[in-house]
Amino acid sequence: MKIYITKNYDDLSKKAANIMASQIIMKPNCVLGFATGASPVGLYKQLIKYYESGDLDFAEVSTVNLDEYKGLSSDDPNSYHQFMQTNLFSHINVDPKNVFLPDGLAKNSDEECERYNKVISSLGGVDLQLLGIGTNSHIGFNEPSDSFAKETNCIELSQSTIIANSKYFDNDSMPKYAYTMGIKSIMQAKKILLVANGKGKAKALKDSLTGPITPSVPASILQLHSDLTVVADEDAFSLMR
Ligand code: PGA
């Protein structure tokens, strides 16, 4: 495991973007696993800058996203499809044919999970998977549980995730279920890049990186990955000093 501690969110975003950029430069037709949420927004801004300055080319890159809310269409402003359009895809030259997310409106959840697993395997797996971490240590929407979920699954969101994310939704409209790549799908990525910032993530990060490996702390499984890089700001790392 490699750990980089940065002064602040800006430095974290640049460091993490450089790691992702080097993946694209080394393998222009790589498969990137993307994440949503507040943590990666600065990293995406930096990737856009590299694209605009001619230093990065996404023409051959394929992307898969970790998760999507069940019940939201791809043009719903709160969908992760739209999050990715707004924060990254509409600003770079990624080919829409090479962009993949779970379909929140799929009629049959089991079939949708199966379809998404096949998408990932038909691409040859993920070269570099970006992850944020929830305050409850979730990765993707793999919530604390009694067992590690394997591949893509449709899960009921935990109360703490609903509290954390309901700020993005009007009234009580936040979906209660979501599709997520499973722990096995995440662990099969060749490289993993975890970003965490702010004091609110300090306990989750400490428990995940230094505590026992248990499905009640989903990100703790990452200790077993052979190529994990963590980029955290000083606040997120504060309980490990
Ligand atoms: P955040 O969410 O980046 O918005 O803090 C991370 C996560 O819940 O995985």
Characterization of this structure:
This protein is α/β, with parallel strands linked by helices. Helices cover about 30% and strands about 15% of the residues. It has helices spanning about 10-25, 40-50, 80-85, 110-120, 160-165, 185, 200-210; strands at about 1-5, 30-35, 60-65, 65-70, 100, 130, 155, 175-180, 190-195, 230-235. The strands form two sheets. The chain has a seven-stranded parallel beta sheet with strand order 1-10-9-6-2-3-5, with helices on both faces. Helix 2 links the parallel strand 2 (about 30-35) and strand 3. The model has no long low-confidence stretch (mean pLDDT about 95). It binds 2-phosphoglycolic acid (PGA). 2-phosphoglycolic acid binds near residues 37, 39 and 134.
**Residues in helix, %:** 25-40%
Give the terminus-to-terminus CA distance.
17 Å
| Low-pLDDT windows of residues | none
In spatial order, strands of the major sheet run 1-10-9-6-2-3-5
Rg to the nearest angstrom? 17 Å
Class per helix and strand makeup: alpha/beta
Please state roughly what percent of the residues sit in beta strands, choosing from under 5%, 5-15%, 15-25%, 25-35%, 35-45% or over 45%.
15-25%
Bound molecules: 2-phosphoglycolic acid
Globally, the shape reads globular
SS elements, strand count? 10
Largest sheet: 7 strands, parallel
The sequence of SSEs as H and E is EHEHEEHEHEEHEHEHE
Query: What count of helical segments does DSSP give?
Result: 7
Give the overall average pLDDT: 96
